[in-house]
């Protein structure tokens, strides 16, 4: 049901929730794997191809997030605008969202975006006036690539994109997904 995102497809993977380098300070996932619904995977491949036209690659931080992991983030983040209520399902647990950034194709260096991934801060929002203009351009480039590929942004997080029809799919638990991150 879910399709893996792989380095062999040209993506860079930095699956933060499989490491302690995330906003909880501890690994949430046991396995570093990124999964998406087939429709979302197709659209991510489209975004990859768009990015390549600019000499860029996509780095993925997170994709499918089992509902159990959503609860871990819910408890770790005080500003609930930055994490969906697990009782409502969210979009990551549906396999219909991806957290990502753009990198230089040759070096793999991330383009500056004004804040880091998962920064629970006002400056993480698209168009925030406190973000340097050059970083805003990078965010706008990412936004254009993702929207052209059929994704919708979340206004408070420059890194988060989801299928516009995400809520048409059911949320999934770790037990429902064989070879998932948990």
**Bulk shape:** globular
Q: What is the H-and-E element order?
A: EEEHEHEHEE
Rg over CA atoms: 15 Å
The counted number of beta strands is 7
Q: Average pLDDT across residues?
A: 93
Question: Could you tell me how far the N terminus lies from the C terminus, measured between alpha carbons in angstroms?
Answer: 16 Å
Q: How large is the share of residues in beta strands?
A: 15-25%
Q: Give the biggest beta sheet.
A: 5 strands, mixed
Q: Architecture in CATH?
A: 2-Layer Sandwich
- Number of separate structural domains: 1
Task: Walk across the major sheet and give the strand order.
Answer: 2-4-5-7-6
Can you count the helices?
3
Main structural class: alpha+beta
Uncertain residue segments: none
* CATH fold descriptor: Muramoyl-pentapeptide Carboxypeptidase, domain 2
Approximate helicity band: 10-25%
CATH class: Alpha Beta
EC number: 3.4.13.22
Function: Catalyzes hydrolysis of the D-alanyl-D-alanine dipeptide.
GO molecular function: D-Ala-D-Ala dipeptidase activity
InterPro entries: A_A_dipeptidase, Zn_M74/Hedgehog-like
List keywords for this structure.
182 residues, five-stranded mixed β-sheet, single chain, 3 helices, Muramoyl-pentapeptide Carboxypeptidase, domain 2, alpha+beta
